[in-house]
Amino acid sequence: xxxxRLSTERSPYLLQHAGNPVDWYPWGEExxxxxxxxxxxxxxxxxxxxxxxCHVMEHESFEDPSIAALLNRDFIAVKVDxxxxxxxxxxxxxxxxxxxxAGGWPMSVFLTPDLQPFFGGTYFPPTSRWGRxxxxxxxxxxxxxxxxxxxxxxxxxxxxxxxxxxxxSSDTPDRAPVAGVSAITEGVEQYSxxxxxxxxxxxxxxKFPRPSELGFLLDAWALTGRHEARQMVVDTLRVxxxxxxxxxxxxxxxxxxxxxxxxxxxxxxxxxxxxxxVLAYLGAAQASGExxxxxxxxxxxxxxxxxxxxxxxxxxxxEDADSVIPGGTEKREGAFYVFTAAExxxxxxxxxxxxxxxxxxxxxxxxxxxxxxxxxxxxxxxVAQSVDEIATRTGRxxxxxxxxxAVMRQRMFEARATRPKPHLDDKVLTAWNxxxxxxxxxxxxxxxxxxxRDEWTRAAVRAAESVRxxxxxxxxxxxxxxxxxxxxxVDAFCExxxxxxxxxxxxxxxxxxxxxxxxxxxxxxxxxELFWDDSDGGWFTTTGxxxxxxxxxxxxxxxxxxxxxxxxxRNLLQLAHLTGEGHYADRAQRSLERFxxxxxxxxxxxxxxxxNVAAWHGRSSQIVIVGPAGADRQALEAEVARVYLPCAVQxxxxxxxxQAALAARLPWLAAMSMVSGRSTAYVCxxxxxxxxxxxxxxxxxxVAEISAPKLVL
Length: 713
Prior knowledge:
The protein folds into four domains: 5-168, Glutaredoxin, CATH 3.40.30; 181-321 and 425-617, Glycosyltransferase, CATH 1.50.10; 337-418, no CATH class; 621-707, Glutaredoxin (3-Layer(aba) Sandwich), CATH 3.40.30. 49% of the residues lie in helices and 11% in strands. It contains 27 helices and 20 strands. The strands form six sheets. Strands 1-3-2-4-5 form a five-stranded mixed sheet, sandwiched between helices. Strands 13, 14, 15 and 16 form a four-stranded antiparallel sheet that branches. Helix 4 (65-74) runs parallel beside helix 6 and helix 9 (211-224) packs parallel to helix 23 (607-617). The chain is globular and about 85 Å long. The N and C termini lie far apart (67 Å).
């Protein structure tokens, strides 16, 4: 098979296109120099390896020799993996969204040889259909336009870039106060108005699991006592877990639901979704007191360990939505995950009616939404009926139903495992690993009574050690973004520093190991050097040193991933609560002041940042448990673990740790010791501590005091 220049790249996405007849270049000077020399426009295609519509466009257009010939004749074709280079993706996504009002992947952008965009969109079918222009027509028209009026195209593109710079620049405003408590109320109202009271979630189809929204609502509830905010979270997470977006056999969650009922997923599985949803379910477990949510969190962690964990402990990026149809050669979305009614009948025989009712299996398929006809006759498992409903409708006893359901998952999982698996994107990304480290570490702190608690903590430690070994250069203080196939590359972006620090702060609180705190402090200092805007406040996403990236942006939108700025402010608040050093709180304040009192009006855009406003107004607490591992210490930890405490930092340390390594960085720990030889808890607010306690009931009372809503609406 002939290969193009992408064959030597490490990105799984670029390698997927290495056999195309398109004369692809990776992003770089070789492509740009040829464009300048031959005076040809650049066709820039941006996507990622588990992107369904990227696969569709590749098969329809990039594998077509006739379309490839048009591209090769009139354009310089460049491929970019958005997950490796979010800086490039953000620049041209800003253009596409401004030009078309929408965005997504694959992203298709046409540039001058100077990298300035003049036309763009997302997926183009090969010929016009579905109201979309055909790719062949677009290529022909743009090639003609460039040949006839290249200077006009250049001038228009230069004007577009200037407009984008103006729209994305931030002149230094007058300092405004941090938004008040009323902004939190306003934010809750916005979510209440958008809330789907029938199916959970916000708005209609498609529905995305945007955990930053859920985190804001939980924080708003904890700090104000507004019950509705909590209820929207726990109800949404319950229906998500019962629906088809949750993989009921292998664990974990798919990317989003194409329908409003959480029944039909877009089947790719992303590491960042698993991380954030684990944190959301752990918070819901604490807020509701219901074990159901903790079970879903553990199920998701288990999936990550089995399917998205490298041998050295680092976490891998994603699994594809598409896979080969069993017994065939064609790929189809969800083929690995769906079942026919006949398959269920063959697997379970006389017990099949129980499984059918439990998972909503129907003879003709059960997808309520199937716009492309991919699920005809297929069933997407979801929890359709309870044990009692099944018993009533089948005439079997509840005990019989429970026995069948006890073996159902494993039997179906084993049957599914014989099918061709979806493609695994096995690159290691620093930011996504940071979020997953945070999730495993918090699980180790919250799931105190779980027999797998230590396993979750060990997984977080192994991943942190792996990221440090693979992607951190101690001597130069350089963090890298991506590791794959023996190569670490791409200087880290602001989100990498922010999310890795987030994970390390969670890991420090769970383990009490000073090395994670020290590294978090080092990373934050380096992040400040590289990305902090001292004149206007806030955080740039890039350093601005790469001149091929036309815009140096600040991104505040909390989307599928939270913005680096939002994560950083939360990190700064936690470091302030841990160290007592004022410069962390000062920088957090300046970041929040950028948005002023009106932040509540954009709660749907920046929920994590508004959550930081809630944390800013909430009184900081420190909870320290000193003692050796054992039943006494675990009993105290359990009292803290059952309460949702968004404004508290919690540290569990041995007496030796409190007196040694940590005391140098956190001198307020030095005086904390065990009382009467027993594990002892210290509950402090703003570093002023209550008398130490050794009895769980006493700690329960103190935790209840600091967890009571403090903000008056």
